[in-house]
């Protein structure tokens, strides 16, 4: 497992336009290996302050980082591996469910039952090296039956042995701009110019087929772009190489590349940190060149450079977004962006049909 984290400190996120966020979903909060037993840390997810930690038994938890008594952050207090204690009045909470276990100020004549009090706590699962947190809709109440929740997103895997890596980068824009940048098919020859990827001279016309999937759309199985150097390496296996790309709400892009028994799969998410800032996480697994030394190191190095190019472009775009310009989306290259906005509105309002009623063929130069 290799990891890289890219940060941006050039623009204040608060200067960027905000957007409406989708709750009632799983989001990656942080890398799970940052949570040692008996330790806790903080994170911000969809504008919600979180206290995350790992209990002595290895289970992880996510609490709203606010004491229900007087609102002080619970992170200002103590975590002993079993309970979280507020610094202000010493209230104690079981962190996985949020149930209060002790109120030190109570006397024998008090009738208040601490166990009936709950701090905010959210379902938290460790998958693909991330601590995923489920943030319910406002007013949904405490979640008592987690079996009714949707499954935690996971990278598709096609063999028991594989390598993995991940890259994280902060983006100074709202999640909408982060997502349509993620799915934009036309920026590659310009943003990602490099000898190891492609050049502006490699641009040519492409035809791709799309089909609807629940809460998203799929770029149907196809041969990967021949003007990208990494894809050419897969030809050494003498197999037909195919790739399939899915996008599903609220923020997930899955890509699967197959070359016979060899495969590469990734899950890329663009997660709102606040209504005006977001974070991109790329999680990848593969068995391609499994026994070749240094492949994970090399892949992470070039992957980080690739994401850095996107990050730098988003920083530059954010300068213009401060003035809240109108967006111009064209056909066919921007059609996936239009589908995303339609799907998001359908999800937020509960009204409307899926923007794709059947298979669609799109054309663009890239």
From TrEMBL:
The keyword Oxidoreductase applies. Residues 26-133 form the Rieske domain. One of its GO terms (molecular function) is metal ion binding. Keywords: 2Fe-2S, Iron, Iron-sulfur, Metal-binding, Oxidoreductase. Coiled coil: none annotated. This is Rieske (2Fe-2S) domain-containing protein. It comes from Terriglobus roseus (strain DSM 18391 / NRRL B-41598 / KBS 63). The lineage of its organism: Bacteria, Pseudomonadati, Acidobacteriota, Terriglobia, Terriglobales.
């Amino acid at each position: 497992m290799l990891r890289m984290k890219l940060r941006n400190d050039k623009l204040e996120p608060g200067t960027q336009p905000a957007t409406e966020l989708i709750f009632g979903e799983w989001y990656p909060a942080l890398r799970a290996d940052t949570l040692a037993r008996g330790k806790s840390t903080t994170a911000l997810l969809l504008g919600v302050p979180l206290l995350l930690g790992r209990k002595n038994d290895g289970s992880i938890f996510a609490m709203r980082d606010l004491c229900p008594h007087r609102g002080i952050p619970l992170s200002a207090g103590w975590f002993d591996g079993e309970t979280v204690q507020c610094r202000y009045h010493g209230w104690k909470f079981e962190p996985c469910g949020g149930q209060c276990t002790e109120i030190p100020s109570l006397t024998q004549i008090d009738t208040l039952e601490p166990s009936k009090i709950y701090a905010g706590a959210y379902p938290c699962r460790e998958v693909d090296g991330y601590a995923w947190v489920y943030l319910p809709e406002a007013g949904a109440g405490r979640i008592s039956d987690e079996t009714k929740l949707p499954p935690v997103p996971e990278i598709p895997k096609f063999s028991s042995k594989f390598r993995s890596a991940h890259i994280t980068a902060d983006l100074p824009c709202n999640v909408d701009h982060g997502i349509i940048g993620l799915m934009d098919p036309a920026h590659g020859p310009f943003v990602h110019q490099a000898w190891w990827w492609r050049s502006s001279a490699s641009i040519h016309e492409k035809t791709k087929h799309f089909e609807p999937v629940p809460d998203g759309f799929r770029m149907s199985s196809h041969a990967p772009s021949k003007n990208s150097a990494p894809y050419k390496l897969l030809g050494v296996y003498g197999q037909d190489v195919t790739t399939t790309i899915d996008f599903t709400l609220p923020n997930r892009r899955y890509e699967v590349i197959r070359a016979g028994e060899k495969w590469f799969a990734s899950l890329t998410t663009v997660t709102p940190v606040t209504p005006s800032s977001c974070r991109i996480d790329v999680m990848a697994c593969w068995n391609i060149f499994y026994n070749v030394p240094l492949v994970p190191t090399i892949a992470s190095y070039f992957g980080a450079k690739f994401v850095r190019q996107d990050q730098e472009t988003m920083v530059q775009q954010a300068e213009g977004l401060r003035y809240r310009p109108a967006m111009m989306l064209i056909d066919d290259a921007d059609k996936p962006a239009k589908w995303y906005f339609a799907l998001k509105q359908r999800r937020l309002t509960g009204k409307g049909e899926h923007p794709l009623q059947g298979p669609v063929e799109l054309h663009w130069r890239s």
